[in-house]
Amino acid sequence: MGTDPSNIRNALKQRQENNLLRTLSKHFSGTDFISNDYLGFSKLGLLAKNSSNASGSGGSRLISGNSDFIEETEKKIATFHKAESALVFNSGYDANVGIFSCVPQKNDVVLMDELIHASIYDGVRLSYAKHYKFKHNDMVDLKDLLHRHHKSFDNVFVSVESVYSMDGDEAPLKELIKLKEQYKNVFLIVDEAHAIGVFGKGLSGGMEDKFFARIYTYGKAMGCHGAAIVGSNELRNYLINFARSFIYTTALPDHAIANISIAYDLLKENKQQLLLRENIDHFLEKVKDIPSFIKSRSAIQCMVLNSNENATAIEDKLKKKNILSKAVKSPTVKEGRERIRFCLHAYNTIKEIDTLVKILKG
């Protein structure tokens, strides 16, 4: 093998010296407070286990990978989310990179919550648009940016997550809509990745027509793979023509599409959502006297520990008790905001939750 560039070696060395080197590991079996399978669709075997269809789709959807089944599922998704149309992407990352890299143009600007997902940052960087961050969930800061920039650009795209993946808190969607309606050229895009399923159809329910685009990711509560962008028929046609992460990739196979369709049927039953909500409410009652927890109604609960060392220590302590959790360290989060992150599930038992909280308080 040849010699690697020195910058690669030096970057890895620096990460290792700072105790920040990421590695892949196989998670041991234990009490699960780490996965995004909030409703348990995947873990409980509620999705399709086998399929008589081919394991591959044979090509991109513009060549050989399209099918009546995919288009029927997209119509099902659009109807469920009260939209004109939907377009399936291979992942939430692909969906965000796709829309943000091709919709905002040279004379446009994207205003993003500072805690927005990395995939949105990556998509915006690939576009020709300007972009600015506003303070997390700070409508005063966003209003200031809108006032300063809305006349300087053709279109202003405001990007938020309905539930944020690190803190588990919610965007003030109603306030965003009121602010947006003061301007003719402002368009809202909301990522519902961590809200769909946990909060039924997502937090944009009942306000669907106020959003230019909504992104639903299926690798979280839906327990399967893929994502969809929902919006107008015109948006769908535009993405088919210009979203490179859609055009230049092999389509999802039929069994993956079948799992998406089944997951939507399970959402309508509402059984797992009710179990999850009971567990979230129980957990919140148990930790209400622990001030370091970030306020959240979602399945994501975070205990801020203020340093990488403290977060790692709690993760290791729980691991010894056969409990799966995740220390989230800087630079993934801001220095001083390091935390231990817990994901609650419909399949967690009251005993498991009580055991977790007892250890945290001990």
Provide structural commentary.
With 362 residues, this protein is α/β, with parallel strands linked by helices. It has two domains: 25-43 and 270-361, Aspartate Aminotransferase, domain 1 (Alpha-Beta Complex); 68-268, Type I PLP-dependent aspartate aminotransferase-like (Major domain) (Aspartate Aminotransferase, domain 2). The chain is built from twelve helices and twelve strands. The strands form three sheets. Strands 2-8-7-6-5-3-4 form a seven-stranded mixed β-sheet, sandwiched between helices. Strands 9-12-11 form a three-stranded antiparallel β-sheet, covered by helices on one side. It is globular and about 55 Å long. The model has no long low-confidence stretch (mean pLDDT 93).
For the structure shown, list the relevant keywords:
single chain; 362 residues; alpha/beta; Aspartate Aminotransferase, domain 1; Aspartate Aminotransferase, domain 2; 2 domains; seven-stranded mixed β-sheet; three-stranded antiparallel β-sheet; 12 helices; 15% strand; globular
Number of strands: 12
User: What proportion of the residues form beta strands (DSSP E)?
Assistant: 15-25%
Name of the CATH superfamily of the largest domain: Type I PLP-dependent aspartate aminotransferase-like (Major domain)
Question: Biggest β-sheet, characterized?
Answer: 7 strands, mixed
Rg is 21 Å
* Number of helical elements: 12
